[in-house]
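Deliverable D5.2: sample structural annotation.
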Amino acid sequence: MYEGTYSGSAAARKLERREEAAEAHGGPLCVDLDDTLLATDTLLECFLDVLRQHPFKLLGVPFWLARGRAVLKRKLAESCDFDAATLPYRQALMDDLKEARSQGRTLVLATAADEKIASRVAAHLGLFDSVVASDGKTNLKGDAKRRMLESSFGSGKFDYVGDTVEKSTVWKSARSAWVVGSAAAVERAQREHIDIERAYPCRRAPLLSSFIRVLRPHQWAKNLLIFVPIAAGHAFLDGARWLEASLMFAAFSMAASAGYIVNDLLDVRTDRLHASKKTRPFASGELPLRYGLAAPILFLLALTVALPLPGRSVFIVATYSAVTLLYSKVLKARAIADVIVLTCLYGLRIIAGAESTAIPASVWLLSLSTFIFLSLALAKRSTELRLAQREGLTALGGRGYRCSDLPLVDAMGVAAGYLASMVMMVYLQSAEVQRMYRHPHYLWLVLPILLAWVSYTWLTAHRGELTDDPIVFALTNRASLCLMAAVAGVAVAAI
């Protein structure tokens, strides 16, 4: 276990006593932290922790940065509850460090991260004899780190583990280098004439494919709801309205992707503890956290695309994004409130389609969709609760539900689905149907189809066969699509 965190001459005095033992094993092994021992950047991890826990403290970031990066790192470290146990460590390097320590090698965690963060990592791992890190005054990066290590061990008397050729300043003062990074990074290090003892190639997926995964384009299927008012208003041949709805679809898709990015960043810690979510690009370290800056860019693009649309289209897109952020930050952890918000977000897509095309959404359409979306939102929670139950858990992590709530969630979801059928039954008897359709009696065939769809969806959920997003399930499942096609066929025959 490490003995302490040092800087300046204190580090030199403390570490000098280890030199003699270290020489017998090839000198101390100094290990960088960010993007080396970890597949992430602790500064950004701290920033996200503060954003989750004390967001208003981030107002001080410009003032801290004005006083230097070392001050910024210290303030962020003091403002967050940093959990070293949830970080993505590079297992191959960890295994070799454990072996080196078992052979008596002195291990030093030498990082530009703040010493408060580095100390927590060292305490969690129990591998390092000492820690050399930024101390709130000196940012221990590049030349500053090289001078520190040279004063502690002497030039050429230590090995250094780093991640890119940018570390060559330190590597050139080291006896040899352990390189963590892509094959291209190793090649660059060789071109710099660095003596490479070991290389740990990071076989990351291409950044583009990882970034696309973060955007979750398959979830854009939910935004097809924007086209519902065109179908409900029988405006099938109106090209201008199709174009307006398509622009709103694009705006909502960009806003939704921005929301998914923010959600993944805020949930990165809990995702790492989840059986399947730990493989998400941000949680696994596959995609650097800095790519989260795409979220505000996508949001601004969404507003720009919605700008030429009629009515309050821009306001609706902004409202959708704000509610999505509120849901990600607060409401998704509140039982019942979460499914109500999801229901409203689904309904907002229909309202967005109505607003962008100037086709009013009838009270019947909004009533029907509200109960259907509530049923599907509860199906989503039901699926998650079943999975948690299967894993032996008693509660749904990050949510406000217990596994014992599952029967009630199922009952509420089934009831909401059948209430949608009741709304449809009342609608079929309305004067509006008589006015809009030449053969309104055909529409009574929709009722058994809707009952079959609700029953099939919940039977699938009960068997644990429902995917974790019922809206996507509804738009991709073969049986579900056949039932929807049947509804469309009946509606066309009735016109």
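Annotation notes: The radius of gyration is 29 Å. The longest strand covers residues 107-114.
The annotation will be released with the project's public dataset once the embargo ends.
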